[in-house]
Specification:
The chain is an alpha+beta fold. Helices cover 24% and strands 37% of the residues. The strands form five sheets. Strands 14, 15, 16, 17, 18, 19, 20 and 21 form an eight-stranded antiparallel sheet that branches. It has a six-stranded mixed sheet with strand order 1-6-2-3-10-11, covered by helices on one side. A six-stranded mixed sheet has the order 5-4-25-22-28-13, covered by helices on one side. Strand 19 and strand 20 form a beta hairpin.
Length: 401
Amino acid sequence: MLDFHTANIRAVNPRRAVLELLETAFGSMQPTCDLILINAAVGHDLAELSKAVAQQCPGARVLASSCAGVVGPEGPGESIHDIVLMGISGEGFQIAHVNDLYGSSSYARGVELGRSLLAAPLPVRMVYLLASGIDIANDQLLAGLEAVLGREVVIFGATSSDQMQGVATFQAIDGRIDQHSAYAVGFWDPTLTVETGATHGFVVVGEPRRVTASEGNHIIELDGKPAWPSYLEWLGLPPGATEGDTIPIGALAEALPAELAEEYGNAHLLRVVTHHTEAGHMIYATDCPVGTDLWLTVRDEELIFRDMDRLLQGMTGRKPGQFPVAVFHADCLARGRRLFNRVMKDELVHRMQLPFATDGVTSPWFGMYGFGEYARLGGRNAYHNYTTALAALYREPPETS
């Protein structure tokens, strides 16, 4: 049976940061972790943080990721020195990781992750997935995992990010840093169940443009014109604009089938463009076949709050009277301070944490502002952008005879 402990702080020195995080997370207890998860804003060296953890928790595996900010029990933190830590102890998880993760290799790397998770003593029923935030085909990564583990496995998590520049994101496995890797924590603890959901609160504007040439997750042309220059022109940006200019305002929307739109509370699924090539290709977050229509979008602040309430009511309504043992939270960095002032962001996070609190104490909470989010939609694992995605882990009460 697994135990979860979390804490988040703002600190500069990695050793002192880890000491304070462990003390806050575990209180007076001596931390006896088997696994430490870390989300750290880009002001931190993941290798140094991992080293500091290893000194305090010998034998623990350490998985870390770069991000644009964190969310923990103390709420959101979006400075370059914010960190959130989750300590997991006990039996009930299996770790897998892969390198050389790119758009063209995403399916194969998903299969590789899945095969590693098959080594668990019991079948893995849910997976926390953290992948590189740049140049991967997330739908193919999910498909590779499902090909091995089955479609019934629930996958949740995020993709790493930088400060919304689309330059480089980092993942660290036991202190080794990479820019094109992924790690997965497969939970086989039979006492755990999970509820997931995602919501964005954006609406489409204007007429769509059509993908007229593409290869995998590279969009080559929009309406017959080179994709990246066309995208910049569509946004009203100059030819020299960068991803840092487009990400806050350039959410693209794909239409959802009617049945999925009803569940999602929105007729469109959003996508982010985190990179482009010198040839003018847009590197998309998923494969994007020719014929796909894409819309520009704008945020609707009232809709964001209304959809958040709808999401929370659905998740908690499926577990009446129960409180989660842990919550994994993936949020789009463009929903953070870069689009909203801090007061609004604090309110949004408080609103999502309150239903998962007991006597005013928030459940162990592990969140990040990244480039993308994984959560179920229509009974299938799905990849989202510009959303709040939550995965609440519950411990099932023992059966009574």
